[in-house]
Design brief:
By secondary structure, the chain is α+β, with helices and mostly antiparallel strands. The protein has 2 helices and 4 strands.
Length: about 70
Amino acid sequence: MEKQKIELKVEGISCSHCVMSIENAVGALKGVSSVKVDLKSKKTKLEFDPEQVSLEEIKEVIEDQGYEVK
């Protein structure tokens, strides 16, 4: 299956530490090939293989870091 590219709105991002915690946590998931958090727009761009990791799993990891996915 082809990789999916998505953009998520994530509430609660306020500093570079927030960006790093999301990028590190999501980037560690098997199947995630790229993750980029934009502090200004509070958007997270992802590229992942849905055969290896689900969108729900990715959202759960972000929420486990203390942020809310819209």
